[in-house]
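REQUEST FORM: STRUCTURE PREDICTION
Request ID: SP-0412
Submitted by: Lab K.M.
Chain count: 1
Length (residues): 308
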Amino acid sequence: MSGQEQFRLLLAEDEPTQRMLLERQLKKAGYLVETASDGEEALRKILDGDFQILITDWDMPGMDGATLCRKVRGAKLKNYVYMLLLTSHATIDDVVAGLQAGADDYVRKPPVQAELLARLNTGRRIVELERRVQQMLITDSMLNIFNRRYLNEQLVREVERARRYNHPLAAVMADLDRFKRINDERGHQAGDEVLVRFAELAKSAIRTCDWMARFGGEEFVIVLPETTLAGAVATAEKIRTLCCAQPMTTSNGQLLVTSSFGVAELNAPHMTADAAAAELLRGADTALYTSKHEGRNRVTCADDAASQ
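STATUS: Completed
RESULT:
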């Protein structure tokens, strides 16, 4: 996130006039604002949406603001939500109770606009810091793609989404051919430069909804949502062709590099999402092994590998 206008904010306030006034102030300040009239509606929106900030009144019918904060924290959302309580409760015990429920800060009602926006600026800094930390944890810093930790977590979510909407999902496993020889003969710096170049070529060949992770060493996994087996084969072939079309330039000369691929599609309806994700990777890995065994620089489908 690189600007205030990109922050999605949910405002939970049961009093219509106060909700309208706050919504107007927050939109004027550059936030993308959605509203909820009670705690139950706010919780549904938080769980379904991608909000960075929640402002909630403490006193609401049904689920109050403190309970809402507690439930949001208990949901263990993928991204951190900064939560600000609006409260007329003035005692220290009340404030402590709200913070212990999961709120990050509080503003007394009626909120003074300058104070509210200042506290939201603090929230923005916290959200940005958390986002940078999370990005570091899931990214291979050298290749600027996701790491295996992200692959293991996100692939399960992709499986769940594909099943929910009955959409196809495919995975491609890629491996640079004879990569150890590059390291041994040209040095590890040249090897790293080849890895970086391959990642760049692969990313240039996939869509914005696709994503790529380093599986380990010179092995990569490319996840292709909304993609059939035939579509995944076409993507893998495109990357393979790009890789060997011309020599890669390194600090120790030019190298002609080839790559091998294994392709599989999601097809495990009776497995759990975790098991199905593992099976998808296993199928792609088996197909990759067949490509390597049959001479490298080729694409193999899991179905073809299984029949051999």
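NOTES: The chain has a mean pLDDT of 93.
Reviewed by: T.R.
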